[in-house]
Amino acid sequence: MKKHLVSFTVNNDQYDLLVEPRKTLLAVLRDSIGLTGTKEGCSTGDCGACTVTVDGKSVTSCLMLAASANGKAIKTIEGLSSGSSLHPLQHAFIDKGGYQCGFCTPGFIMASKAFLEENPNATEAEVRHALGGNICRCTGYTKIIEAVMSAAELMRSARQAR
Amino acid sequence: MPEYSVVGRRLPRVDALEKVTGAAKYGADVHPPGMLYGKIVRSEYPHAKILHIDTTEAELLPGVRAIITQADVESGRKVFASDKVLYSGEPIAAVAATDSDIADEAAGLIKIEYERLPVVQNVMEAIQPTAPRLHSDETKDGPSRRGIRNRLKQLSLDESEGSSEEIRTLETELETLEEDVYYNISAETHTEIGDVEKGFAESDIVVENTYTIPRVHQTYMEPHVSVASADSSGKVTVWASTQGPFAIRSGIAGTLGIPLGKINVIPTIMGGGFGGRFGVTMTHVPAVLLSQKTGRPVRVQVTRKEEFLDGRPAPGCVIKMKTGATKSGGILACQALAFWDSGAVSGASIGSTIRVRGVYKIPNLKVDAYGVYTNKSGTTAYRAPGAPQAIFAAESQLDEIARRIGMDPVEFRLKNMREEGDMIPGGSQEPVIGYKETLKAVADAAGWWNRDKSHNQGWGVAVGDWTNGCGPGGVYVSIHEDGSARIFHGSMDITGTDTAITQIVAEILTLPYERVTITRGDTDSAPYATGSGGSVVTFTMGNTAKLAAEDTRRRILELAAERLNTEIDNFELRDGKIFVNGADSPKSISLGELAAFSLNTRGGPIVGKGSFAQQSSTPALAAQIAKVEVDAETGRIKVLKLVSSQDVGFAINPMAVEGQIEGGTVQGYAWAIMEEMQYDQNGNVNPGLVDYRVPTSADLPTVESVIVEVPAPNGPFGAKGVGEPPITPTLATMSNAVVDAVGVRVNDLPIKPEKIVAALHNNGN
Amino acid sequence: MRDFALFEPTTIEEASSLLAENGGKATILAGGTDLLVGWKEGIATPKSVVSLAQISGLDSIAYDENTGLSIGGMTKMRAIEQSSTIRNRYTALAEGASEVGSIQIRNLATLGGNICNASPAADTVAALLVFGAQLEIASTYGERTIPIRDFFVGPGESSLQHGEIVTRLVCPPRPDNSGSHYIKQKIREVMDLAFIGVAASVELAHGVVADVKIGLAAVAPTPIRATDAENILKGNSLSESILEQAASAAAEQSSPISDLRCSAEYREDMVRVLTKRTIQASAARI
Asked: Fewer CB within 10 Å of terminal CB in chain C, N or C?
């Protein structure tokens, strides 16, 4: 079948790729671009491990055709830190022990980032609800939620400082 | 307690950066050049004869490089079903292609003709004579026939005892019990201590119930995956996401007849295991076979759906249980008859049925357990294998007894708990243990003693015990010329064990945590390490690493003595430096200086090694209290409070230990409330994460963890295994809380809303 | 996933003719959150796919006091959930949209897709039924408008003809003295499918029910209105006994099945429980 020319940015880098229509954004990120930080946990949109942001909104990249991402700005976990400087969410996940096996972590961090940017003052209950699309099987969520709440505070103070 | 500077601290994990930046490489992130994609073709039916496999159309699809079936397995060991399938999802063939979508498509083009056979999915039906047989017609005696046969055997051995009349009576009885036999039995185990009949007769109160615990999937977030590369010399390299790389090596060697030395297993970071990622599983052997056939690296990665169809989940079971006690709260007897659903393969954790004994003084105990074949995939370990099921039954019964005799359920448990020196029914004497401390700790933390509740709210308590396993392991420690230390080993990091090992070595070498790094080798390079399961790692590898660090310290002191020209006994290792004791002019040498010195003199590199053999550990208790609110009209359960205490011996890293407690508790909660693999005549009907429900953050409150430390005499710094205990009591904790809230006990898990509503209706509400 | 040809038309006309050209083999792609799952599992293997994503103007939300609410078929669930107009005036719809999957799913899934899947358990449909939504449908043959009540034929089946595209939904304006609510019975708080879904819209005048509509999901082959219950309530005050009667009538009108999620008996029982609660909650919002 005819491949499609798809142009988008991933973590601010421009990509122009010829892709089969059937390839998902997840498959292209992992297999064509080699950004394997985004994980495939279920391929049906039910676990959130493949969460990336597209034009600032979190999506399950396993349920989006790469062709549909044409012209968009995509952010993955690899684009969150610049050099050795980590995003507040990354700091908080380390400090609070918000991960164990780590497989769900990129998805959790990306989903939290999009949510906190929209809702900087979210309550714990709101965060728990908003992250319902991300499954973690190791932590029981307690330390993830602590990490996100602590990151929210860091992000608020960073915003105030600016 | 001694003052430690590195162990016992909440330090960030050694793998922190790679885990939060996406840099960590898991199984599916391995992509050698020229790699092909493998896909497994699976049975559509739970029980059928395979009449014909037609691969012609699939072979013609552009991009397909190989298709294999059992005929391609030269060793003859079963990898694929060839004449009969016993569960839907059973592997029949595998494809390798240049693209994952092409492999998928090719798998769909393989035509298999079947002749369907009758299916049995329920253990209580499978043991009946009318059930279809999975493996053979053989029967096993039920408990009554078994008892008579045992007595007859005893009589025939000892002629002085009994009479020929008794023998005749027993033989007649045996004939009348012809139907007390079970079909489709995969395994059995029996334990008898004291006389349960006498115990029940002396009891003031006897509760008897049947408990049904569903089959649940470990649901590690990373689906099974491996990449194999076979070269022309016959050397096979396998990248595997596994709990035990050495078991993968021996498993592949055994299955395919490849010499052990020709297999190198390179472990990747593992996306969760919980017991389900042990040994050769869904992907390893097919990947090797496909690579051997194509001469190219092949990755076999299963989907979440395949995980449910052909994973090795935890067995469901039916436990008929009876407990007798006195009015004053003494347990007199306990009897259990359990049927474990093995699926089509033998291996359910039936040995864990004995755990119905709990941590209590029980004079009379009888346990009969059977593994039963059904048309489902086989089962394997899941966090304290078998214990959550058995403990659910036992702790539900205790709760019922406490309610009936009007005794506080915590007091009732405390009254019956074993202490140091008490005999474990069917086991040895209790060592130093912390059962009572742990239960009291959770009761205090949860506010049990002055608990309040509104309408339809309830409190539940339960405890569960588990003793960590142990295996052999080896560790090397090297000191670099900059004074830093590196640990080299071959055990898999499950959720922080590399961090614990690093903390232990840093503590012994008196180095800052940041100055010690850790590397995992592959099976070609690393010393053997037991698999990471059974809560073994911190105990086994922690002890091993401690030995290695101590060996390193010994070597350091030897070399320092040589360097500073004095006796070994005069030295002290402190803050990463060697100080001479008692000298008038203080002399010291840093580890870096010493390492550099010995490189250029007679000492050579500073290397220490630790080699550790198996030894037994001490039991650990987890105790939990939940407060729930039940919507009596809809049956929905909301958890308001969940407190979990655990005797961990000594918490090497309290943050990681809390993480284990919280995670295990939530897995137990989910087993009680929502998880269940459902089957019908076509196989598993909920093979996905929509209808197989694992909880999300929105379902739960903060889990409060309480660390109790009663040191294990032979654990590193007193540490016990931590990973498994917290899942063991939660099934009963939740159920007991629901009873306290709305007065109905649902013994058939999960406690779905519908079951609560039905039970309330039956109660006349 | 099987290979397919992907078309990305920029106008409705172009989309309609692409669908017409490709005969019965073309599938419309909206958000893709349901379709891609089916394609991956080989349940559907379309040869051609026509994406509506590049057609502008299909994802707008507009409200007019005279004509009511207008939502483009490609509007994302997340936008519906977050629209203040919908939250204030068509609360049950915002609640229904917020029950679909996760935020990540709702950033992809569209209202048109949720409707056109024709799942009896669709979370927005019970609300759209009570708001009397009209569907605007375009094709090469022209445009037609049908009430959502007439749209569903059976599980997974709608009256949408091949080549037709749902471009817009229109809900009549809401009276000031009205309130609405959607309740979904589930086990997990988030990411569950509806075991039972009940939406209600209640309009009160001088303490009595001037108008009421009740929509039920997952308890019949299609989403349905509980009209018998509505008739019982109309003209009455919301007394306990009237509510009980109406709730029982709603349960009576449902025809649920037993499946892996729950039994027919439980579903029927929950229609009773949740109808009462939904009406009370709707009235409390006035």
From this structure: C
